[in-house]
């Protein structure tokens, strides 16, 4: 089991009065693999090395994929890797906070299915993957009709932000200024079991936990403009972003659990924790580092690059 300092539950704290924080926020849908764990290690190094608190957040708003057992195993693996933290926040406890934030935002109901959105995105001049605003300007009568149709199916509509910009610029410590598209993204998913959307939950929780440094994989860089824009609407501080390169498999694709023994528990069947940390450090250009504490003594954020590394097993 992880050491006690790594398993303290979130308390009622005045976060704004405390030292700013960095964080790691995994989704509890399975054991963390080598790439996930390396990102967690970098987040811990960046936070501790800059005098910040380091907080964890279990992002379990996706109730269909998340499990308490998976969350516990992830916390245990992080502690085994040598990471400690100051607080753990569980998103399933945060409904009231998300509801309160939602009520301060401009939003509208969306009745579109995924198929509707896919077909709309194929239209001339449509931007692939971007919501085309189908439900944005519906009349009151049309909304009532579509809401009734969903209710007859036992479903509720999604809620989308009524965005007032089409793009937003953020600054990333590794990638510089990055401008990305902002559409009317979902704040709460609809359907038979509505869940809070990632973009809303992550912004609200970063504000609550005092997070001003976000370290995560660079596959999430495109999400940063939406989240930064939402933070400004909520009157929250936009954090410092550090989107780190991913770990790839031998085929040059994103590392996944299908690539063999990639989780910490699997790796520890044939090697030590020191071996695993050494491999992570070597992929970042540091040789001979065999513990998180040793790494903290030599780590320099400015030495991080943007090129992915390859997991060699």
Automatic annotation (TrEMBL):
Pfam families: tRNA-synt_1c. Its cofactor is Zn(2+). ATP binds at residue 257. GO terms for biological process: glutamyl-tRNA aminoacylation; tRNA modification. It is an enzyme of class 6 (ligase). InterPro entries: Glu-Q_tRNA(Asp)_Synthase, Glu/Gln-tRNA-synth, Glu/Gln-tRNA-synth_Ib_cat-dom, GluQ/Sye, Rossmann-like_a/b/a_fold. Zn(2+) binds at residues 110, 112, 131, 135. One of its GO terms (molecular function) is glutamate-tRNA ligase activity. Residues 23-291 form the Glutamyl/glutaminyl-tRNA synthetase class Ib catalytic domain. One of its GO terms (cellular component) is cytosol. Its EC number is 6.1.1.-. Keywords: Aminoacyl-tRNA synthetase, ATP-binding, Ligase, Metal-binding, Nucleotide-binding, Protein biosynthesis, Zinc. It comes from the Bacteria. A motif ('KMSKS' region) lies at residues 254-258. A motif ('HIGH' region) lies at residues 26-36. Binds 1 zinc ion per subunit. Catalyzes the tRNA-independent activation of glutamate in presence of ATP and the subsequent transfer of glutamate onto a tRNA(Asp). Glutamate is transferred on the 2-amino-5-(4,5-dihydroxy-2-cyclopenten-1-yl) moiety of the queuosine in the wobble position of the QUC anticodon. Belongs to the class-I aminoacyl-tRNA synthetase family. GluQ subfamily. PANTHER family: GLUTAMATE--TRNA LIGASE, GLUTAMYL-Q TRNA(ASP) SYNTHETASE. This is Glutamyl-Q tRNA(Asp) synthetase. It comes from Corynebacterium phoceense.
